[in-house]
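Newbie here. two chains, one complex. Structure please?
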Amino acid sequence: MTVSPGAAGKIAWNPGNHVFPTPAALVSCQTPGGKPNLLTVAWCGNINSNPPMLSISLRPERHSHAIIKETGEFVLNLPSRRLARAVDFCGVASGRNLDKFAASGLSPFPVARVSCPGVAECPVNLSCRVTQRVRLGSHDLFLAMIEETMVDFGLMDRNGRFQIEKADLICYAHGFYFTFGKRLGRFGWSVGKVGRKHVYTRTDQKS
Amino acid sequence: MTVSPGAAGKIAWNPGNHVFPTPAALVSCQTPGGKPNLLTVAWCGNINSNPPMLSISLRPERHSHAIIKETGEFVLNLPSRRLARAVDFCGVASGRNLDKFAASGLSPFPVARVSCPGVAECPVNLSCRVTQRVRLGSHDLFLAMIEETMVDFGLMDRNGRFQIEKADLICYAHGFYFTFGKRLGRFGWSVGKVGRKHVYTRTDQKS
C-alpha cells in the first residue's frame, strides 16, 4: 500500500474485487436424470431490463459449471437471513461428493420454464436460460434470460406489490454476510421533495 | 400473477430484474478536455478474480454511455450513507445539461491508472478500463479490468485490513436504498466451528 500523492486521505489498496455489496444467492441446477445441485454465488446481478437478464460468474472447476454449461439452465434463488448458514455451506462444499440439498436441509421444488428445480425455502426464485458464456480468466460469465420469477405468496400485498422488507434478504461484502439495514429512501426521492430546500433541482429523468 | 400448481405458497411474479440487493455506485467518467460526469448504477458487480474485473450495464441513451464507449475508462465509486441523496440525484439527473459534480457537491479527484477522476467523498474508488462491450437490448454490458483501488486511509487498520463496517456503505433493492444491517458471519463459518454440532461437515473447499 502506498499513499497516493494525488489525493489527501486516500490510499492505494490492491486492484481487487471490491464491488460491495453483492447478493448472496443460491444457484440450483440439474443434469437430466442426475441429482439437483446447489452453489452459492456472490458474483451475480441484473444486466439488462428488456429483455430481463442477469449474469452469474462461475469458476470452470466448480461442479455446477459443467451442469449449467451442458443444460443452459439454472435457478437463481435469493435466501433470507434464516438460511445464511446453508448459503455459506453451499459456498464451501462441493456437489461432486455430496447431495447439498440433503446436507443443508433445503428442498428442491419445480419452477416454471426450466427443468431444474428451485429452492423452496428461498423467498425469490428466478428461472434462467443461458444465452452466452464469456470466458474471462478465472471465471466464466454466464449471461442469461430471466424466464420466470416465483416469490413466496405471503410477500405480495393485496395490490400485488412485492414487500421486500418482509423477505429478510441478505447480502455479501468483503467476506461477510449482512442483513439489510435501514431503508434510506426510494429511487427519485432526491428530486421529489417539492418545496424542501436542497441543492438539487428536477432535471430530465429520461437520460 | 397466478399461483403455481407445483409449489404450495409460491406465486408467479413478473420475470423481471429481481436480483437483490445490488450496489448503489457512482460511476465517474470524462471525455478528454470535457467536464467530468457522474452516473448512478445499480447494475454492476464483480465478474472475475484473475484478472480482477467488474461489469456495469448502461442504457445507450445515457450521457455517460457515449463517454465511456469513447474513452474506455471509468471509475466505480462506492458511496457511504451520508451520500445517499447525491447518489439518488445522480441517478435521475442527466449530465447533458448539468454539471453533476457541482450540483451534488461532490469533488472529482485524480486516481491512478485512468485519466478520468474519482469521487473524493466516496470511501472506495475503483479505476476501470473497458475490455469488451456486449449489446443486450435495452442496456450495453461493459466488462472492465479493475486497474487500481483507492480507499480512504482511515478505513484501513494497522494490519492493512479494510474495515468495511466503518465505510458505512449502502445498497439498492427493489426501488429503495438501504444501509447494511447486522453482520451474520464470515465466509466459511458454517464449516469452521469445530466442536459445535450442526448438520454440515467440512468438505472439499476447492471445487
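Moderator note: The helical segments of chain B are 63-71, 84-92, 100-104, 164-167, 189-192. Residues 53 and 145 of chain B are 4 Å apart (CA to CA). Thread marked as resolved.
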